[in-house]
Amino acid sequence: xxxxxxxIAQVSTLLYMWTGMVFSEKKAYYIxxxxxxxxxxxxxxxxxxxxxxxxxxxxxxxxxxxxxxINESYFYRExxxxxxxxNAILPELAATKAPGGRIRIWSMPCAHGEEAYSIxxxxxxxWAMVDAYHVEIVGSDIDTHALASARDGHYGxxxxxxxxxxxxxxxxxxxxxxxxxxxxxxxxxxxFTHVNLVDAAAVASQGRFDVILCRNLLIYFDEISRASAxxxxxxxxxxxxxxxxxxxxxxxxxxxxxxxxxxxxAIVYRRP
Length: 272
Fold this sequence. Notes:
By secondary structure, the protein is of the alpha/beta class.
């Protein structure tokens, strides 16, 4: 027996509580298909049995979260923000630090690694001072499957399509089985961690950052979870640190503590 409308609504409420993401009635079919797949994979047989497992098994809870999370991205997505990072943000931050000082950048969510590795490649290609400072890049996501993929570092043509040919040749191993693998030096230079943005303790465990890129995540939240997430992002920033959101997102109506900053390449936000 497939999940009922009541089952889907109940699971959608749980997912909202666990992740902050809103799954409206328009997404009912999306949730239903993933529930059916999880019931099949776990051998639960029916929704009642599966629900009991879901509530008592943290690993299955994570598996369901992985199943409903959208991780669509590609290298150099919204690259105007990477340009702002290299041309304005990092030079300003570096001016306040001694040579060799640490600059921490957080990519949250990082998808299958495209978001975090894009930062590393862009800086190597476009910021002349990248070797003069200890640039630490952390990529985080709620989806543990995506994080495993990020650490593995294999990418197909679609993910690499926007990268200049020179960058593909310099930072990826030769194509094999229609995929390229990001070179070992870059795989080892980016740290990947499991973080739920609406979990204050999980966010705090990452320490504080000079720059946070949180792009195209808040669009999946409602006002309450957006406000919670914004507060956690604010706390995760060092004073005078920068926040980059997706091009369709704005912090103006979410958390007024951030200052809007208009740079030549992008609009960003800053913690005072």
